[in-house]
Design goal:
257 residues; globular
Length: 257
């Protein structure tokens, strides 16, 4: 409760200082994924709105609030217009925020309204590209030595499981790792191996390393070679009007204009 109170205090301070209305705030990263280490930061992501006049300008305006870091807290946010633009493009990071199991603020039912539109704008191809790229980048960068951090294993396994989820036609990949694992783990042996690694991850610090796990390496390498995002449909609506309507609706709700 103490950390949640601190997060809510920071969000309130930011809203007042930046003259914004925060619509939604959630946990992202390892705590939202369900494999935080004892020393993991709190990665808070939020979506906000300015008053109406802020949007009535021909000038380019900054549409993010850059990371505000205070000890173990890392907070950053997106303006609603940036959010809706990326939602239209089926941005997987945003889809994960909207499905986070750790929610700090959800004003006026914003997240639920967004989730209701998710099937219309979700693109299997774009999400597969994102998760495959993430897994490849982590694997090529960090799996070059005999010992690898527990954290990096999950930074590869989780996006590959997300790919398996999408390939199975289950829709946008859920944020929580356990939900992914329950549906897409290849077999019982792999499940036990990953559950053992998960327990080590939760009890170890972020940078702790251990010997490579051959069966997991083999699984990772086979998946990296096999996934072909281009074989899946884009299958997303391109009509911006429902999102324009949502923008206008929340401008009115947030500021009561």
């Amino acid at each position: 409760m103490k950390i949640k109170d601190s997060i809510l205090d920071w969000l309130s301070l930011l809203a007042k200082d930046r003259q914004i209305s925060i619509l939604y705030a959630c946990e992202s990263g390892s705590r939202a994924w369900g494999f935080a280490s004892p020393d993991s930061d709190y990665d808070v992501r939020f979506i906000y709105m300015h008053p109406q006049d802020w949007y009535l300008s021909i000038a380019d305006r900054k549409d993010t609030i850059e990371p505000v870091i205070d000890g173990e807290l890392d907070l950053s946010g997106w303006d609603i217009r940036k959010t809706l633009f990326h939602f239209r493009k089926s941005n997987p990071v945003l889809l994960e925020w909207l499905q986070s199991g750790i929610v700090y603020l959800d004003n006026h039912g914003f997240a639920e309204d967004m989730r209701n539109l998710m099937p219309d704008y979700y693109s299997p191809r774009r999400c597969l590209h994102h998760y495959l790229s993430m897994a490849k980048s982590q694997y090529l960068t960090h799996f070059t030595e005999e010992k690898v951090s527990f954290k990096k294993y999950f930074y590869v396994i989780r996006p590959l499981f997300a790919c398996r989820w999408i390939e199975a036609g289950l829709g946008p990949a859920p944020t929580e790792f356990q939900m992914l694992m329950a549906k897409v783990t290849p077999d019982a042996v792999m499940t036990n191996t990953i559950e053992d690694l998960l327990e080590k991850k939760k009890q170890s610090n972020e940078k702790d390393k251990d010997d490579r796990i051959p069966e997991l390496d083999k699984f990772v390498e086979s998946k990296l070679e096999r996934i072909k995002p281009e074989q899946f449909p884009d299958a997303r609506a391109d009509d911006a009007e429902p999102l324009n309507c949502l923008f206008r609706e929340y401008l009115e709700k947030a500021w009561k204009i």
